[in-house]
Amino acid sequence: MCAIHGNRGVVYTGPGKVEVQSIAFPELSLGNRACHHGVILKVVSTNICGSDQHMVRGRTTAPSGLVLGHEITGQIIECGRDVEFLKVGDIVSVPFNIACGRCRNCKEGKTGICLNVNPARPGAAYGYVDMGGWVGGQSEYVMVPYADFNLLKFPDPNQALEKIRDLTLLSDIFPTGFHGCVTAGVGPGSTVYIAGAGPVGLAAAASAQLLGAACVIVGDMNPERLAQARSFGCETIDLREDGSMEDKLEVILGEREVDAFVDCVGFEAHACGCNHGKEAPATVLNSAMQVTRAGGQIGIPGLYVTEDPGAVDEAAREGALSMRFGLGWAKSHSFHTGQCPVMKYHRPLMQAILFDKVQIAKAVNVQVISLDQAVQGYADFDGGVAKKFVIDPHGMVA
């Protein structure tokens, strides 16, 4: 019955270019075999991510023709034979990392590095370069495998639609920002520096508040994004201005270091101060070691890649960055990198949303757009607007 539907999706067609194109309607299959454990979703909402922008800018080896999108919330319209605990009509959040639920890493809760869903390396994601070739979900319909294990069912579909602007962020940036804070050791009374005021940085800042931080400081070079951080109670540092980070922290805290540091920038980082227009891919990591207290923790949810065709030097093209690692060793820092294991966090964060303990959509400034507006959304996001674009393919978002 589902095969009568058409399908459209956002397709990467080359550096700087995306198009909305007709794409194949999803099937419950994996290559040449049936996917009895999967479901087909009618996409309720699907978000544009900063990680997508790395590909669209041509800063990865993403192939032309890739259907984008790893932040997906949908309604089940078809279930595979072996799906036991979900049914047609359920509205579900899809973790961006695909996990089999069977391998050693999945059984240890490390769903971001599943061993069975990507032949090239541990870990997979929808619509992303080197992440297993899975079709992305910035589309009208998408197939999700291992559904019973992966999907988070919302308890009440009507309530889910009422709060969809918040719940749509459970697929990636809210858990990712929260994970960055948890791995940085954020807790009650701590002081926290968040590098980057893009959507993940803002989600991390809101997460730090949820975790009980006493002071959350967000640094960026974009005045509009810094204003967005201040709108929900963060302190901010404009990194275009000259002066040392320690001096700027002392003005806010009365101290020259923070308890916890979260890198929400990643490999396309730029230098601070008078050199702020110059790319310096290790600058955030070096700053983290400089301003985090001895014995502190550094969470790194920001994306770093093994291949960057547009890097500033030959070493960075292979992901080799010039880090002052001896400083981190001397200060007994701990570093935590890699994909967020979304399933570790998405249920409790859903509860925080449903019981009004956090207003994450307001914090990241969600703007809902249609599928046909996705191309402009990518352009605006690349221009640095302080918004999180949520695509509504079927007009289901109230």
Automatic annotation (TrEMBL):
SUPFAM superfamilies xref list: GroES-like, NAD(P)-binding Rossmann-fold domains
Ranges where the Alcohol dehydrogenase-like C-terminal domain occurs: 199-267
NCBIfam families documented for this protein: fdhA_non_GSH (TIGR02819)
Name recorded for this polypeptide: Formaldehyde dehydrogenase, glutathione-independent
InterPro entries xref list: ADH-like_C, ADH-like_N, ADH_Zn_CS, GroES-like_sf, HCHO_DH_non_GSH, NAD(P)-bd_dom_sf
Family label: Belongs to the zinc-containing alcohol dehydrogenase family.
Cofactor (UniProt): Zn(2+)
Main EC class the enzyme belongs to: oxidoreductase
A GO molecular-function annotation: formaldehyde dehydrogenase (NAD+) activity
Organism from which the protein derives: Oceanimonas pelagia
